[in-house]
Specification:
Elements (H helix, E strand, L loop, with lengths): L3 H4 L7 H10 L1 H14 L1 H13 L1 H8 L2 H34 L5 H9 L6 H11 L6 H26 L2 H9 L4 H12 L1 H17 L2 H5 L5 H12 L3 H25 L24 H30 L6 H35 L3 H14 L3 H14 L8 H25 L3 H9 L4 H12 L1 H17 L2 H6 L7 H10 L3 H29 L3
Organism: Mesorhizobium qingshengii
Protein name: Iron ABC transporter permease
Pfam family, one: BPD_transp_1
């Protein structure tokens, strides 16, 4: 029996289809090229520094034992954390979406809720509860807990959209439940798993605060340390160059695994919901898995923050400082999320509608910048503004551009998955009825992908509220976000004073995680 994805193959990837789509909306291709070129600015900055430094110095900085140690640490972190997150997310998504598990809706929300807690707050909670927690396995534990919801969201949303008729057909041909899942369900989850895994891996490459708390050295922590000591030294830029190479490897793996299969249908499939599987004696293990995940991802941070709030009392609530930090954080998060989502739309459309060598190249440019730490992107923009556009140095415009570059992959992954489920035949039908290309695109694909755009904006806003290094380097004088205030107090080992800022960041993020959960269900028509 062919896999479900094989049954849905289409000729949309042909050269003729690509030419037709590009002629229909050339402005989309142009917009995607402009955004991709802007995304290359940090990489161009690294190359420029390397050229100025000279080959002898570059080779001495790159080919040394310290770089090998960082490469092993970062590689092991990705190789261990990402597969664990995939298995955990697929298991949780199946339990909450396809089984008769008691309280499935509540458990589904609890699986998304850890996104409301910044990664460095997860690490802060664990290190204050278990002071001896450090090293590789500590990094894997906290990374999986902090980032598995990215995978859970995409996989659970894909599970809701699957046509149950395909699984019924496989079962009628004699396949058991496990073989149906492996041969029919899992292939249809490939796009969701690839997108979510790439997003998690890129976050692992770029994360800084989480690994500082647990004292685990990665390329990002080493780069930031170098920048803090020499500001714009060549050693940090060469480390960033190696980090970009790691990103190329991840992109290549994702491209090979994802393939070019089509995942959309013209019709909606069977007009019924998938019948939930009976767990029977597996109900207790399923509940225990969800309970353990919830306690690790939510229980530890909430207990730790609550303990420090009680210990600090009323004195730690400095409402004048907190109010200023809250207002500035909201402004930056909303403006940055809107800009990143608008910038990602053209590339997401081309990724699905016109796959090919140009699309792969442009999409890779957008993902490369997501693997760079905020310090590298910030210093690239500092150099450009100081040398070329001095009036833009440390302005709101510059910090928003940095946010758009850093969090473009979050918006792109959400939009790509949403557009993939909007059939191109609807665009063609609208055009054949006489609508102009832009009107046809707006009335079909853009409207159908609106839930994905909202989810992407929420993901970007979450990232901006938790961003630290680029904000410190690029924000206008006087800016003090919640994350900056939290990091300042925790750096002084004043965990009680840092607790209110951690609490507010979590409280602000919870509505956004609820929006992600609701929009993922709307994408499935529920």
């Amino acid at each position: 029996m062919q896999s479900a994805v094989d049954l849905a193959r289409s000729g949309l990837g042909s050269d003729t289809g690509q030419r037709t789509l590009r002629r229909t909306a050339p402005w989309i291709v142009l917009a995607a090229i402009l955004v991709s070129l802007l995304s290359l600015l940090p990489l161009a900055f690294i190359i420029w520094i390397a050229v100025q430094t000279g080959w002898e110095t570059v080779s001495a900085l790159v080919f040394r034992p310290r770089v090998g140690e960082l490469l092993v640490n970062t590689g092991l972190l990705v190789l261990l954390a990402v597969p664990i997150a995939i298995v955990l997310s697929v298991a949780l998504a199946w339990l909450t979406e396809r089984s008769d598990l008691p309280g499935a809706r509540l458990w589904a929300w609890l699986c998304v809720a850890p996104l409301a807690i910044p990664a460095f707050v997860h690490s802060y909670a664990w290190i204050t509860m278990v002071p001896r927690l450090h090293g590789l396995w500590a990094g894997v534990l906290v990374s999986v807990i902090a980032y598995f919801p990215f995978l859970y969201l995409t996989v659970s949303a894909a599970l809701r959209r699957l046509d149950p008729g395909l699984e019924d057909a496989a079962a009628a041909l004699g396949l058991g439940p496990w073989r149906v899942f492996l041969r029919v369900v899992l292939p249809q989850l490939r796009l969701a798993i690839c997108g979510g895994s790439l997003l998690v891996a890129l976050h692992l490459l770029a994360e800084y605060g989480l690994y500082v708390f647990i004292r685990f050295d990665t390329f990002t922590t080493a780069i930031v340390d170098q920048f803090q000591s020499t500001f714009n030294g060549p050693a940090a830029n060469m480390l960033a160059g190696v980090l970009v190479s790691c990103c190329f490897v991840l992109l290549g793996i994702e491209v090979l695994v994802r393939g070019e299969e089509r995942y959309a249908r013209v019709g909606s499939g069977a007009a019924r919901y998938q019948q939930r599987a009976r767990l029977g004696r597996a109900t207790i293990p399923g509940l225990l898995l969800l309970l353990a995940t919830t306690l690790l991802a939510l229980g530890v941070p909430f207990v730790t923050i609550g303990r420090w709030l009680v210990a600090g009392g009323a004195d730690v609530w400095r409402f004048d400082e907190i109010g200023l930090a809250l207002g500035q954080t909201l402004l930056l998060a909303l403006a940055g999320a809107l800009l990143a989502t608008v910038a990602a739309m053209p590339m997401a459309w081309i990724s699905i509608r016109a796959p090919g060598p140009l699309q792969r190249l442009l999409e890779g440019c957008n993902y490369i910048v997501g693997s760079l730490p905020g310090a590298v992107i910030a210093l690239a923009l500092v150099t450009i503004t100081v040398r070329i556009a001095l009036p833009l140095y440390q302005t709101l415009f510059t910090i928003l551009i940095a946010y758009a570059l850093m969090f473009l992959p979050r918006a792109l992954v959400s939009l790509r998955a949403s557009i993939a489920q909007a059939p191109v035949e609807l665009e063609r039908a609208a055009s054949s009825l006489g609508r102009p290309p832009l009107n046809a695109l707006w009335s079909t694909t853009i409207r159908l992908s609106a839930p994905g755009a909202a989810a992407g904006m929420a993901l970007v806003a979450l990232g901006i509220m938790n961003e630290l290094t680029a904000t410190q380097m690029l924000a206008p004088n006087g800016t003090r976000t919640l994350a900056m205030a939290f990091w300042s107090y925790s750096g002084e080992i004043d965990y009680a004073s840092a607790a209110p800022y951690a609490f507010i960041m979590v409280a602000m993020s919870l509505p956004l995680t609820w929006l992600l959960y609701v929009q993922s269900k709307r994408m499935a028509g529920r």
